[in-house]
């Protein structure tokens, strides 16, 4: 697995929300095996997850989609709204599901999830994903990323009345908002859409990760978004990047 954080640093606090106890326990065992991660609470539905977030203040929530009482998408929307109202960035939500379906990917992204993984994801990738969303990078399952971007382009074609052989027109809804971005912020948006993490961006642009995070926060704020993965969708919808140009990176 990826190198652990220094032992002197606080552990990443995680809440696991899934209606199946065996899955909750299995995820907790994987996470608690890592020296820099700790599971602070487990929830059986979205409503319980919201209560436990207030009680335990986790950094990351692993959120199942299909749960009774309140599903994971509604819970994620409420977490995102609460974070925005309080001016904070945590907890980040990493959505887990067994359903490799673009509808769930899009719904999770629009609800404000920072990442999307299938439940049969390799444990190493799961751990890397938790660390990534905690430090502010977005992580999406590779197969789901492809489905997501292809689906976005298909939706653009349907809305614009274009055919599969014709390129989709950029979504005019974003034109004015993108105009608010500085040249450097537009550059940041393009590289985010191509899959670069904050660390990658810092290295490529010869600046510090702190500077990159400041630019990313500004991009999200100006576009009214809550996560990097939402910014990726916007970049494709707006025609800033096109399918085939994105390179998904998996850094822990």
TrEMBL record:
Alphabetized PANTHER family for the sequence: TRANSCRIPTIONAL REGULATORY PROTEIN NARL-RELATED (PTHR43214:SF24), TWO-COMPONENT RESPONSE REGULATOR (PTHR43214)
InterPro entries xrefs: CheY-like_superfamily (IPR011006), NreC/VraR/RcsB-like_REC (IPR058245), Sig_transdc_resp-reg_C-effctor (IPR016032), Sig_transdc_resp-reg_receiver (IPR001789), Tscrpt_reg_LuxR_C (IPR000792), WalR-like (IPR039420)
Residue ranges of domain Response regulatory in the record: 13-134
Residues where 4-aspartylphosphate is found: 64
Name this protein carries in UniProt: Response regulator transcription factor
Source species: Kribbella yunnanensis
HTH luxR-type domain ranges (all copies): 178-239
Origin superkingdom: Bacteria
Membrane-spanning residues: none
Taxonomic lineage from the root: Bacteria, Bacillati, Actinomycetota, Actinomycetes, Propionibacteriales
Gene3D superfamilies per record: 3.40.50.2300
Keywords: DNA-binding, Phosphoprotein, Transcription, Transcription regulation
Cited Pfam families: GerE, Response_reg
SMART domains per UniProt: HTH_LUXR (SM00421), REC (SM00448)
């Amino acid at each position: 697995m990826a190198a652990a954080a220094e032992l002197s640093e606080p552990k990443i606090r995680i809440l696991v929300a899934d209606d199946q106890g065996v899955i909750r326990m299995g995820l907790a065992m994987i996470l608690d095996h890592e020296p820099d991660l700790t599971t602070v609470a487990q929830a059986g539905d979205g409503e319980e997850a919201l209560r436990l977030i207030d009680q335990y203040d986790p950094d990351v929530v692993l959120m199942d989609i299909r749960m009774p009482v309140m599903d994971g998408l509604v819970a994620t929307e409420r977490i995102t709204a609460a974070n925005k109202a309080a001016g904070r960035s945590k907890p980040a939500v990493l959505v887990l599901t067994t359903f490799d379906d673009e509808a769930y990917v899009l719904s999770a992204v629009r609800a404000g999830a920072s990442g999307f993984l299938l439940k049969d994801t390799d444990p190493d990738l799961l751990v890397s994903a938790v660390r990534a969303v905690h430090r502010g990078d977005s992580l999406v399952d590779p197969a789901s990323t492809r489905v997501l971007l292809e689906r976005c382009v298909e939706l653009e074609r349907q809305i614009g009345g274009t055919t599969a052989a014709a390129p989709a027109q950029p979504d005019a809804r974003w034109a004015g908002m993108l105009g608010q971005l500085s040249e450097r912020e537009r550059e940041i948006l393009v590289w985010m859409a191509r899959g670069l993490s904050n660390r990658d961006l810092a290295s490529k642009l010869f600046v510090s990760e702190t500077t990159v995070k400041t630019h990313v926060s500004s991009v999200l704020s100006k576009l009214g978004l809550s996560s990097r993965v939402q910014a990726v969708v916007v970049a494709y919808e707006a025609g800033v990047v096109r399918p085939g140009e994105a390179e998904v990176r998996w850094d822990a």
